[in-house]
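Data availability excerpt. The first of two example chains:
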Amino acid sequence: MDDEPSTSGGSTRSILQKRQDEVDVMAAKPPEVRDGIKLSIPLKLQDKNDVIFDKHPVVTAKLQALDDRQKRWLIVGICLQKIVLPALRQYIVPILTDLYNELMRKQKIETQTYETHLTRYAPANTDLNYEAVNNNKATYGNQRAKYDYTIKSVVDLSKLFLPTHMAPDTDFHETCDLSACLGLIINTGRFPVSVSSCAENVRSVIRNPWVHCNFTEWDEFKYSHSFQLMEQIVGALRLSSYEKSQLIMELREWKINAKPSDLDDNEKRWLVVGICMNTVLIPALRKYVVPILTVLYNELTRYQNIDTQIYQHIINQQTDS
């Protein structure tokens, strides 16, 4: 049995420890090579993996099997991520850079401390969030006096205007997603009203319904309206006329002649995962949680009378506890 100790060289060692030693020895060896390529795992294990994959080939997702509403949802998602998001990233950086330079000059945010840090950005009436900056929340939790309040870059500045979970990690080009870009346009007060208004519409009418997917919503009207709003926000951005016309042409091409085959492998994987989440996983989760929540509701109705409770009753319960 694995739990039985064994002795070697006068010392007691478990079989589990021996196996760990074997792994350590294996890891210390130079990587094995096959067909001129260094393998990240031992050759024997790689061969076993290859046999498994040969017996169980990866099934290719059949996008043509989707119904019309699912296809509309899919195409809008492609356009949001492939066309609108890169344009937003390109647009917001210079404006946020100007804001960063201004705050360095006026507020010394690059050297501020707990005692001197800017807590609120008055022009936008926004409370600033320092949790994601300098890994503060993960390091110090709610001990805000210990936070590092120095803002060392434009990326750090952007984190102040976003919820902690939404803040970009390192730069705008990879880790600043659509929700973050729209949030920065809406929350900083530095963008023209025409752009922030378009951003509000894209977030509420397209982005949020797309993420919290209900395929039945994606009829022809919502599809056309989504493309109208995407064209509007592209047209409102401070881009060259040529860039705007190219982006709008690309949007219209996708709307009329959508070609998922034009996507690269990473984009296809992203789409297939999204389809599986919304057509398989989420319906299964809904089916699973409803009976459990129903039992909980019945229990609270029976013991706490939550179906007839009033505000004062809740206050009394909190006071008693």
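And the second chain:
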Amino acid sequence: MRQGKFGQFSSVIIFCMILFSKASEKLELVTEEELLNLIRSEKYVVVLFSKPHCEECNKFENELISTREDLVDALGAWVVKIENSQLIRLYSPSKEPVIVFFRHGIPLLYDGPVNDEMILHTFTNNKEPLAKELTDETFEHLTQAATGATTGDWFVMFYTNECVDCQRLQARWEAVGAHLKTRMNIARVNRGSTGAATGRRFDVFDVPAFILFRQGKMYRYEIRNYDVKSLVSFATEFYKNIRAEKVPVPKSPFDDLIAAIVVYLKENPWVWQFGGMTFVIGLIAALLVNKKSSVKPSSKKKAAKKEK
């Protein structure tokens, strides 16, 4: 009898010890410099962007702690947290808490429920970057956008290296890819360099820009709301409410040259201003020269009359 009571008492003590150890367990806290080094050097890094005295942050941390061992076993991932970091602005429009999964340095914003099983499922099923990088050389070959052929639908983001908003969208765009990976292809085109001709082909002047290519038609996302839910909704349903455009064939070299000049003038309005100023100065100079030339003969005639 005593042994039974002692066994029950021991079980209670062990249970309390487990609860205490779980309650005291925390994610490793890193600095911004340490985090950047991890992102550069490690294959997989899971980061909780947190802040002190935040109840919601504690919920996120507890769920990550629950799945940390599985993440380490399945991915060999580092699971850490950082507090009050300005880096969060690069990956999420929201404030703390935020979870970001880095794969080879490419961020994926976690936008699912605060649940350890869903976190594990999302990350283990998206171990590689999802958005394909398309260039002028590969775009038509891979998408077959003009023919609407066999490679499926493509949801494409146009960006430039200089666009800060585009950089901040990368983690969200990867999250969009995670939602749509079984339904369509997700891609990016650098309109400022390797995809400049492709950008001109589709009259993409401002970035970020999003176009859905589906069965030989294209649908422009023209809503200034870049959250994951809105982008996914557009690609799956809302595009039906948008006017479909026929996908243009690639421009001829001459047409592309004209388009490139138009884009250059649009992006460099000072050229117009300088050209207009030069024209005005030239016109004034021409008028002055013309006026002087018309005055000189009359002066000579007056001088000749005086001599007579």
